[in-house]
Structures are given as structure tokens and as C-alpha cells.
Write a structure and sequence with these properties.
Blueprint (H helix, E strand, L loop, with lengths): L1 E4 L2 E3 L5 E7 L8 E7 L6 E7 L5 E3 L7 E6 L4 E6 L8 E8 L3 H4 L8 E3 L3 E5 L1
Parallel strand pairs: 2-11
Antiparallel strand pairs: 1-3, 3-8, 4-5, 4-9, 5-6, 7-8, 9-10, 9-11
Length: 124
């Protein structure tokens, strides 16, 4: 089970930090990360991190503004979002999966990951 927190409303230029706690029942995924889905749009990958190492992937749209990190002692992944823009408004979903390729090559197939329930981020 994946449980997200940290969403909310913020003005453009502001910051938020999302957290995703992974329960033991989720198993031992190789990678965790974040997707988002805005109203009327398809879900898109935002950032992913390799649990056992230092590999990280970012979408071009958030590169330089968002930072993904992990604390394996707490089974938690974070997404620090800075310099937020109105176009970052979306429901943000935590995902656990087997490869960073799932983030960089995401084709809409939800079956290759475990998902959290989502947390709303609104930037005005």
C-alpha cells in the first residue's frame, strides 16, 4: 500500500513537498516515483528514483524545479516541488514499480505499478 500526503493549494512560485509511505505489504520495488493527472488530461510521469542506488529520472517539464528523494529507513519517497506553476496543478500519484523505464517510457499502462490514492496539488 502506498499513502501520499503533502498536497494542497499554493500560489505560483511557491513550494510544496509530497511524501509517499510504502507499507511492507507492497513488497520490495526497485523504483518509486510520482505521476500526475490534470483534469481532462492523461496521466504523465513526473519523476522516478531507484531505491537501491542513485539513478533518478525527471520529466523535462519539472527538471530543475522538482527534486525526488528517498529515505529507505522510513520506506518513504519525497517530491520537493519548487517554483510551482499553474500548469503543475494535478492529482499527484505515488507509484512503485520495477524499473525507471516505466517512468521514462510510460505508455498509459497502469498494470505494471502499484499506486497510491493520489493527492491534489493546486497552483493559482
Amino acid at each position: 500500500q502506498l499513502v501520499e500526503s503533502g498536497g494542497g493549494s499554493v500560489q505560483a512560485g511557491g513550494s510544496l513537498r509530497l511524501s509517499c509511505v510504502m507499507s511492507e505489504s507492497t513488497g520490495r520495488p526497485y523504483c518509486m516515483g510520482w505521476f500526475r493527472q490534470a483534469p481532462g488530461k492523461e496521466r504523465e510521469a513526473v519523476a522516478g528514483i531507484f531505491i537501491g542506488g542513485s539513478s533518478i529520472w525527471y520529466a523535462d517539464s519539472v527538471q530543475g524545479r522538482f527534486t525526488i528523494s528517498r529515505d529507505n529507513t522510513k520506506n518513504t519517497v519525497y517530491l520537493q516541488m519548487d517554483r510551482l506553476r499553474p500548469e503543475d496543478t494535478a492529482v499527484y500519484y505515488c507509484a512503485a514499480t520495477g524499473s525507471l523505464l516505466y517512468f521514462s517510457k510510460y505508455d498509459g499502462d497502469l498494470s505494471f505499478a502499484s499506486w497510491g490514492q493520489g493527492t491534489q496539488v493546486t497552483v493559482s
